[in-house]
Design brief:
Blueprint: E1 4-8, H1 16-26, E2 33-37, H2 47-57, E3 62-68, H3 74-87, E4 92-97, H4 105-109, H5 113-131, E5 135-140, E6 143-149, E7 162-163, H6 168-177, E8 180-181, H7 188-204, E9 215-220, H8 227-236, H9 248-260, E10 265-270, H10 277-288
Parallel strand pairs: 1-2, 1-10, 2-3, 3-4, 4-7, 7-8, 9-10
Antiparallel strand pairs: 5-6
């Protein structure tokens, strides 16, 4: 397995100075990629804009996003991601997510949580057809349009799409539709069980997912979590405190546990903004950089 570690910026790079420091330090210290997540109501950059800026700033670094699919115009999303892949020279990594369910994010997304799965089921095959250069007509949960052909097309053919989520319906969907799995907030044992469900669903659909395409997004704290941050984490994501390693040795142990059950791609993201990205990246590289193979 090729172990690769990317770094997720979260809300810790909402200025040009911070993002520039992060982008400048990543590949020099051996990290695989930069990741920006989409949270409409959070203090984070829009990932399409932020990743375009990052790709222009560093011509080597891979760029990744966990982007919302529900609530998006599927044609606009297809064009944005194709454009970003083309401008970056094929360096884009894509994971699509249903979005968080706490208010006000739930209302901002505009699609009820119980309806989001149907939107993803409808939209993901459309994205693939558009990126393949087909002329597409459609009328369904993902939108209504007639005789649309996308241009420009992405450099990567195909442009792979991974999915997140770890509830049963999300696992089955991942097996049917995705190229890989990048969840968060689960134990290594839960991840291993989820992978089995995904692989079985893929086999039933007459397809397979590369064994190299199972990863994990891991939030971590380099120091004890302060009470305000802890309350926010607990309110937004159940089990987030329980499943957040505290300290670099704990982060390394967590990654090693996932590697032991067959996971090989990781996005590590600090839950609190570091004072210096350069110092944070150096500490991360010292703690987990040698896990990459």
């Amino acid at each position: 397995m090729k172990i690769r570690i990317g770094v997720g910026a979260g809300g810790a790079s909402a200025s040009a100075e911070a993002l520039g420091e992060l982008v400048g330090g990543l590949d020099g210290l051996g990290f695989d990629s930069l990741w920006l997540s989409e949270v409409l109501t959070g203090p984070v950059l829009d990932p399409m804009v932020g990743l375009a800026w990052a790709a222009a700033s560093n011509p080597r670094l891979k760029i990744g996003t966990t982007a919302l699919l529900p609530g998006r115009n599927v044609l606009r999303l297809a064009k944005q991601l194709a454009s970003l892949d083309r401008l970056s020279g094929g360096r884009l990594l894509v994971t699509l997510v249903p979005g968080l369910t706490y208010p006000p994010e739930r209302e901002a997304i505009g699609v009820e949580p119980r309806q989001r799965g149907a939107v993803i089921d409808d939209a993901l095959p459309l994205l693939r057809r558009l990126w393949a250069g087909e002329t597409v007509s459609h009328d369904g949960p993902a939108g209504r349009f007639h005789d649309v052909r996308l241009s420009p097309l992405p450099v990567q053919r195909p442009l792979e799409v991974w999915l997140g989520g770890n509830v049963p319906a999300a696992l089955e969907r991942c097996g049917r539709l995705s190229d890989g799995w990048l969840p968060s907030l689960c134990t290594p044992e839960e991840a291993a069980a989820g992978r089995t469900v995904i692989e079985e669903a893929a086999a039933r659909a007459g397809r397979s997912i590369s064994p190299e395409h199972f990863g994990m997004s891991v939030g971590y704290a380099s120091a004890p979590i302060d009470p305000d941050t802890a309350r926010t984490m607990a309110a937004r994501r159940p089990r987030s405190l329980e499943l957040t390693p505290v300290g670099y040795p704990a982060l390394r142990k967590t990654l090693e546990q996932f590697i032991a059950v067959g996971f090989s791609k990781f996005v590590v993201r600090p839950v609190a903004a570091p004072r210096s990205w350069r110092a944070e990246l150096e500490a991360l590289a010292a703690a987990v950089g040698d896990l990459q193979t």
